[in-house]
Amino acid sequence: MVNWIWLFFIVASVVVAAVNGKMDAVTQAAFEGAKSGVTVSFGLISIMVFWLGMMRIAEDAGLLRKLAAMLGPIVRMLFPDVPRNHPAIGYIMSNLSANLFGLGNAATPMGIKAMQELQKLNPDPATATPAMCTLLALNTSSITIIPTTLIAIRMNYGSANPAEIIGTTLAATFVATSAAILADRWYRRKSPPPQVKSKRRAGITTPSPDQGGEAVV
Amino acid sequence: MYNLFTNVSAWMIPAIIVFIPLYAALRRKVPVYETFVEGAKDGFGTAINIIPHLVGMMVAIGMFRASGAMELMLSAVRPLFDWIGIPSEVLPLGILRPLTGAGSLAFTTDLIQTFGPDSMIGRIASTIQGSTDTTLYVLTVYFGAIGIRRTRYALKVGLFSDIVGFFAAIFICLYIFG
C-alpha cells in the first residue's frame, strides 16, 4: 500500500503540474523535500542519542520492568503475543506515557526502541508483526492529554480561552484511538500472524513474494 | 488552569532526567554515566537509518502539494462538505494532517490567524491538529528504523483512525461550541 501511495503522489504531481504549468515548482519541491528529510533525521540524532542513553539507565535500574508491571493488564490485552517479561513491554509503556504527557521528543526514541525490541521477536525481519502494527496504531492516533503546542499558538493569537480545546481534543483523540484499536484488532484477526507461516517454511531460504502482507519500499 | 498545565509540562522532563539516574545510582548501584554512553551509542545509527525513508516520503509529499494535485483532490470533495454544513476551510487539514506534521501545523496556524482562535474554524483546526499524529511520518520513522518493508495493514489502520478522528473533531466542536 505504501508503494502505491508513493507512486500515486509522484505520478499525480507530475501530471497535474504538466497541466497547470507548475513543473518548476514541483522540481523545486522535490529537492526541498529531500533536504527536509535529511534535516528532520539529523534533528532526530540528538534526541535519539540522549533519550536512548537515559532509557538504558532506566532499563538497567529495573525501572522499565516496574513500569511494565504497573500497567501490565492493559498491555497484555493490547499485545497478547509479547512475553510478559520481555523488555519490549517496558519500552512500549514508556513510549505510551511520553505520548500521553505530550513529551513528543521523548516518545519517538522510546517508540523506536520498542520497535527494535519487538523486532527481536520477529521471525521475518522484513515483515511487520501484529504487535508492531498495534504499537504503530497507538502512535499514529496519539493519545495526548495536553496539546501544549496548540495552546501556545492560540494564546499567541489572543484567544480568550486558549485551553478550551483540551476537552474537544481529548474527546476526538479518544474516538480516533478507539477506532485505531478496533481496526487493528479486526485486521489482526483477519490476517494470520507471520510466525505460523515461517514455522511451516523453516528451512526454505528464498522467501516467496506472495507470502502475505504487502511489499513495501 | 493553563498555568498549571504549562508548569507540569515544564517540570516533567527535568524530573525524569533527575529521577532515572538518581534511582539507578542509589538503589541499584548502576554506573550511570557509562550506562548512559553505552545506550546513547545506538541513537546515532538509528537516526541515520531513517534518512532514506524520510527523504523518499518528503519528496513525494512536497511534490504533491506544490503541483496543485492536492488542491485538485480537495475540490472534488468540497461540495459534499458544504452540503453537510462543515466549514470547508478545514478540509485541507484532513489530507495534510496524516501526511506532514510541519505542513499541517503551518496550515492550522494560518487558519487561527485568519479566522481567529475563538472562531469555529479556529477551534476545529486546533482540535484536529492536536488529536492525531502524522501517520505517514510515524510509519516511515518507526518501520524505517528497524528495516520493515512489508507493513501489512498498519497504514490502513492509521489512515482509518485519521479519518475517524478528523470527523470526530469536527462534529465534537460543532456540538460543544455550536
Automatic annotation (TrEMBL), chain A:
Keyword Transmembrane: yes
Pfam families cross-referenced by the UniProt entry: Gate
Superkingdom of origin organism: Bacteria
Stretches for region Disordered: 190-217
Keywords associated with the record: Membrane, Transmembrane, Transmembrane helix
Biased composition (Basic residues): 190-202
Residue ranges occupied by any Nucleoside transporter/FeoB GTPase Gate domain in the UniProt entry: 43-150
Membrane-crossing segments per the record: 33-51, 91-112, 133-153, 165-183
Keyword Iron assigned: no
Protein's name in the database: Nucleoside recognition protein
